[in-house]
Design a protein that fits this description.
With 308 residues, this protein is α/β, with parallel strands linked by helices. The chain is built from eleven helices and 14 strands. The protein has a single domain (5-305), classed as Ribokinase (UDP-N-acetylmuramoyl-L-alanine:D-glutamate ligase, 3-Layer(aba) Sandwich), CATH 3.40.1190. The protein is 35% helix and 22% strand.
């Protein structure tokens, strides 16, 4: 197996409740429910496998029917689970309530067991981790686990990427020493909670993270696109103008596309274009994954959204 990208973090059942009418508080609304495989690290691993990147997922599954289904979904997509954990109990579930325009109204996370991915478990699988081309962790992990992965990254030279996920898990890392982290990928809501109160402007927040020793900050700004900052340069790219069906998984897909670009040795702007292209495709379907696009088609679609 060529050097894989190893993703460490959540694997969940995504139950998405799509409102059919405008949502009103304290009353009943019509809706359609869909069930898909989810979890930030699992989504990224699944999408990477579909677009032709070798990938391992280290996650936690329940020993219930949902866990069996999640594992089969991963394996069928080409995701290896050599160091994943199966525990007694229910599998984790993400329940999202979506407005009629596909945007998120509210969400709930239940039965996630990411606390079981601890440094001693990872240390038992260092031979596997040493084969990685990139390490990807999501902020649902324990701080101690992320610190262990960061130290492992610094000792081996394998780049480590941290995905903040959402505001509550991101907030855990405000005072954590992330010096040496290759890349962090906040959106405009997550960025402030990673920083001190003194950094009250976006530029100050980005500078603070870079001054703490994080090598690259990739800021996602939704419909406005994204910008990647480091000590040497800042580059930005607008988002494609599309009709959004479902916003779930767009950020995960964007990171999957970016990592594909890095895996293929593309320059930074091409990585952003691939990222935005994959994100745009995900936004136009229900669920967190696009299965109709392989690597060749994805790379061809870049010129559709970003013609020369």
């Amino acid at each position: 197996m060529p050097n894989p990208i190893i993703c460490i973090g959540a694997a969940l059942v995504d139950e998405l409740i799509h409102a059919s009418t405008e949502l009103l508080l304290a009353t009943t609304s019509d809706a359609v429910v869909t069930k898909t495989a989810g979890g930030v690290s699992r989504n990224i691993a699944h999408q990477l496998a579909i677009i032709g990147v070798p990938v391992q997922l280290i996650s936690v599954f329940g020993n219930d029917s949902d866990g069996d289904w999640l594992k089969k979904t991963c394996i069928d997509a080409g995701v290896r689970l050599d160091a994943s954990i199966t525990r007694e109990g229910l599998s984790g579930k993400y329940t999202g309530i979506l407005n009629i325009d596909g945007s998120l109204f509210a969400a709930f996370l239940t039965n996630a067991a990411n606390h079981l991915i601890i440094p001693t478990h990872l240390a038992a699988h260092t031979d596997l981790l040493k084969t990685a081309s990139y390490l990807l962790g999501d902020a649902n992990l324990n701080v101690e686990t992320v610190e262990w992965l960061l130290n492992f990254s610094k000792s081996t030279g394998i780049p480590f990427v941290l995905e903040p996920v959402s505001v509550p898990p991101a907030r855990k890392y405000k005072d954590v020493d992330l010096s040496g982290l290759y890349l962090i990928t906040p959106n405009e809501d997550e960025l402030p909670v990673l920083c001190s109160d003194k950094a009250f402007l976006t530029q100050l927040q980005v500078e603070e993270l870079l001054n703490k020793g994080i090598q690259n900050v990739w800021l996602h700004n939704g419909k406005q696109g994204s910008a990647r900052y480091n000590k040497d340069q800042a580059i930005s790219l607008h988002a494609p103008d599309i009709e959004v069906v479902d916003c779930t998984g767009a950020g995960d897909g964007s990171l999957s596309g970016y990592l594909l670009g890095k895996y293929l040795g593309k320059n930074e702007m091409d990585c952003l274009k691939i990222a935005h292209t994959l994100s745009a495709e995900i936004l136009q379907v229900n669920g967190s994954i696009v299965t109709h696009i392989n690597q060749a088609i994805l790379l061809e679609h870049v010129s559709k959204y970003y013609p020369d």
